[in-house]
Amino acid sequence: MPELVFFSGTMDCGKSTLALQIEHNRSARGLQGMIYTRNDRAGTGKLSSRLGLVTDSVEAGEGFDFYAHIVAHLSAGGRADYVIADEAQFLDPGQVDQLARIVDDLELDVFAFGITTDFRTKLFPGSQRLVELADRIEVLQVEALCWCGARATHNARTVGGQMVVEGAQVVVGDVNQPETVVGYEVLCRRHHRRRLTSAAARAAALSPDVLPVDPDSVGDPVSGLSAAE
C-alpha cells in the first residue's frame, strides 16, 4: 500500500542526504519520481545536501498545489512513481493535505522530509500536519550532536553567535555560519533551555573566574592566620 512517510530530525542530521539516496535507489530501478522542495540552501529549484550532492527539483512555494501539479503532469503523459518533498516544515497544512491526497487518490508513495520544531521549540505548521496525517513517522538515526557531545534535539537561531528566541518563524539560514549573520546551531535540550551556544560556551571558558573575596580576610597559606590576626 502507498504511504505518506514523514522523515523528521534536527538540522544537520542528514534529511536531504536521505532524500537524495531514496531518489538514487528508486531511479536506479527505473522508477521516476517527482521532487519538490522549498527554500533549499542551494537556491530555487534545487534539493541539496551538506555533503555536496544536489539535484533539480520543483520549487513548492506559497500557494503551490501539489495534487494539481501531479495530475497535470500525468495528464500530459508524464510518469510519476513516487513523490519526494524536502523542507516540508515550510509547507502550509493545506499543502500537506494535498500530499496525503496524492497517496490516497493517486496511490503514490510520498516521502516528506523536514524539521519538526522551530528555534523556539514550537511545531512548524507543516510538520504538525504531517505528524497528524502521516502513515509512518521516521526519526532519522544519524544523530546530530550538540557542542557538548550530547545528542542534539533542538534547533537554535543565532545572531552574532548568541541564541535568540524572538523573530519570524521562517528565516532561511544554515548551520556553521559566520557569527556576524543569522545562523542556526543544533543543541541538546539542556543547553537550548540555557541558551548556551558553542560561542557562548567558549566565551564563558575564556572568562577569568573572579572570586568575591576580601583580601584582608584571607589567611596565611602556611600559618592559617588571617591578616587581621
From TrEMBL:
Signal peptide: none
Keywords: ATP-binding, DNA synthesis, Kinase, Nucleotide-binding, Transferase
Catalytic activity, as annotated: thymidine + ATP = dTMP + ADP + H(+)
E.C. no: 2.7.1.21
Organism domain of life: Bacteria
InterPro entries: P-loop_NTPase, Thymidine_kinase
One Pfam family of this chain: TK
Entry's Gene Ontology molecular function annotations: thymidine kinase activity
Family as reported in the entry's similarity comment: Belongs to the thymidine kinase family.
Name of the protein in its database record: Thymidine kinase
Originating species: Streptomyces roseoverticillatus
